[in-house]
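The authors assume throughout that readers already know how a fold can be written as discrete tokens. For illustration, here is how one protein appears when written out as sequence plus structure tokens.
>
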Amino acid sequence: MPIGLRPRVFVGLSGGVDSAVSAALLKEQGYDVTGVFIRAWQPEWLSCTWREERRDAMKICLTLGIPFLFLDAEAEYKKDVVDKMIAEYKAGRTPNPDVLCNKEIKFGVFWNKAKELGADFIATGHYLSGEKDQSYFLWMLTPDDFSHTIFPVGHMEKSEVRKLAKKYNLPVAEKKDSQGICFMGNVSMEEFLSHYVKAKRGKVMNTEGAVIGRHDGLPYYTVGERKGFEVTQKGADNGPFYIVAKDADTNTLVVSDEESEILEFSPRKIILKNVNWIREPESPELTGQVRYRGEKLPIRLSVVGRRLSVEFKTPVRGLSLGQSLVFYENGNLLGGGIMDKIIS
């Protein structure tokens, strides 16, 4: 195929193996490929490995013989991902920054820049099925986003991608998968939030209202967690305590170690906000995923006023407002929404 007729695709290179193999596959398939490293934001008090990741992305491009571009999205990342995440935690919610990052940065800022420079497509190393299925993080995308995006390793298994990385002699073939988000670095969410969210210590109570311990600040905790708070009044027969509710008015965590109580506090019906459809469902009976790598649960959709309601067949443990609920039909991603209000 003549060079001028080859479709141009800009591949988001993270410095990892998935995006590297994506670039190699696209070049092999005849695309005019450019590798792009996107710089995220990081706080000054944290060390981050973005320079090392950029160096690996450059090595990948040298190995494949493709151009390399550096896209500085630090300001956009801070404004559209980090600031929104912090605001949600301040409001007592538990957001998913990876969902925002995909919508605002990888399929927003990145695509706009790629299009400006003459690209026909962008590509990422996301998995869309199998053990490492990352479609949960893509529910905010639109049909238009998918129309100009390629997922070269989307339906592969990780082991297959590793083999391809060795076949193409990629310098990151043996590199371990990265964990977490760059701006977080090697730090817990609690420590990160402590720099941006004012919180005060409060009481930990059981479901009968007795004080049995203390916590370091409500924004640091999510319903369903069993760590991070202190239980001082604990008997030998007590099992692990789980957070079943957060009371902002009294700055109190409510916890329980009784399965029956935990289920009693677990909702069956919730209201969503910011609902997005990639494809309209054929039936109100779908499956919903409430956390990454979580089980896909049977759900039924209905309309309450002007809002979308979701009912689970059985109570769901660990639901927290602000989390994403993602819809699937026959295993295919349909869209999703943000859990905004518990009905029952």
